[in-house]
Backbone:
C-alpha cells in the first residue's frame, strides 16, 4: 500500500481482520484480532505482563495535578514558511477579535501537548507496566508504557492525538518518547501545525517534596520548525480533587462566542 497514509493502512488492516472474523458486528476471532496490539505485545494490564518482574519506580508520581502558569508553549521556535503563515494568520485574527483554529471548541481532541497544560486537572495512576493519565478535559486518557516495549511500526499503528508514549526512568526522572500523532485538526496553541514527523520527549520530575511536577517538553518537527522546541511547565499537586466527567458537547459549545460565525474562522475543517 505504497503511498497510502499510515492511518489509512492501519484502518484497512483493522477492517480486514474484522471481516475475517465474520464482520465488524459479528463477535469472532477476527474482531478480537482487530483490537489486539499489532506487534503481539502483551497488554499493560495483561496478567502475564503484570506477573513479570519490572524495575520499581524510583518515584511514585501517583496524584492529581493542575497546570501552573500560562498554558501556551512559549517561546516559539523559528517556524518554517507555511507554519509561519498560519501563525501570522491566527495572531492577526486574534488582534481583530476573530478566533481561528479553536478546534477543541468544535470537539476535536486537544491532543498533545496542550492536553497537559489547559486548566483542567489530570490524575496520574502509576502501575508497574505503565503510567495512566486521566484528564478531566474531554475525558481524555493517556498511557505511558514502561514494560520495555518499543514503538510500534508506523505502517500498522493508527496515529492518535495523544500519540504512542514509551517511557523509562533515568535516575528520578521519567523520560517519555511520544510519536505517531494524528495530524488532522491538531495544532499547538492553535498557532502551529504538526506533521507525521512530530515527536515529543518529556522529562518528568517530582519537585518540592512531591508537591509539584516539572515537565520539560522537547518537541521536534522539521517540516514545521527548526531544531528543538523546548519548554518547561510545572504542575501543582491537588489533594481535594477527583475526576469529574467533562464531555465535549457540540450543542453546548455552540453558545460560546468563539464558535459564532462572526467571530470564528475554521481552517481545514473539510480536510480528510
Residues:
Amino acid at each position: 500500500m505504497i503511498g497510502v497514509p499510515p492511518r489509512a493502512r492501519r484502518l484497512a488492516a483493522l477492517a480486514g481482520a474484522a471481516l475475517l472474523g465474520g464482520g465488524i458486528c459479528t463477535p469472532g476471532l477476527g474482531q478480537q484480532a482487530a483490537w489486539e496490539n499489532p506487534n503481539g505485545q502483551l497488554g499493560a494490564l495483561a496478567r502475564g505482563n503484570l506477573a513479570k518482574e519490572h524495575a520499581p519506580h524510583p518515584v511514585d508520581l501517583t496524584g492529581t495535578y493542575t497546570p501552573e502558569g500560562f498554558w501556551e508553549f512559549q517561546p516559539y521556535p523559528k517556524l518554517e514558511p507555511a507554519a509561519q503563515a498560519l501563525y501570522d494568520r491566527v495572531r492577526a485574527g486574534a488582534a481583530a477579535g476573530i478566533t481561528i483554529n479553536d478546534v477543541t471548541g468544535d470537539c476535536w481532541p486537544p491532543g498533545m501537548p496542550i492536553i497537559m497544560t489547559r486548566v483542567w486537572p489530570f490524575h496520574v495512576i502509576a502501575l508497574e507496566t505503565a503510567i495512566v493519565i486521566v484528564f478531566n478535559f474531554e475525558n481524555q486518557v493517556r498511557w505511558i508504557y514502561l514494560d520495555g516495549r518499543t514503538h510500534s511500526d508506523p505502517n500498522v499503528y493508527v496515529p492518535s492525538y495523544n500519540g504512542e508514549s514509551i517511557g523509562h526512568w533515568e535516575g528520578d526522572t521519567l523520560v517519555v518518547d511520544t510519536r505517531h500523532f494524528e495530524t488532522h485538526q491538531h495544532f499547538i496553541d492553535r498557532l502551529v501545525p504538526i506533521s507525521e514527523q512530530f515527536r515529543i520527549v518529556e522529562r518528568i520530575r517530582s519537585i518540592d517534596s512531591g508537591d509539584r511536577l516539572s515537565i520539560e517538553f522537547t518537541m521536534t518537527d522539521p517540516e514545521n520548525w527548526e531544531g528543538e522546541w523546548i519548554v518547561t511547565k510545572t504542575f501543582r499537586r491537588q489533594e481535594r480533587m477527583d475526576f469529574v466527567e467533562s464531555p465535549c458537547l457540540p450543542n453546548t459549545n455552540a453558545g460560546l462566542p468563539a464558535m459564532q460565525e462572526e467571530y470564528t474562522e475554521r481552517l481545514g475543517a473539510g480536510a480528510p
In short: The first strand starts at residue 63 and ends at 67.
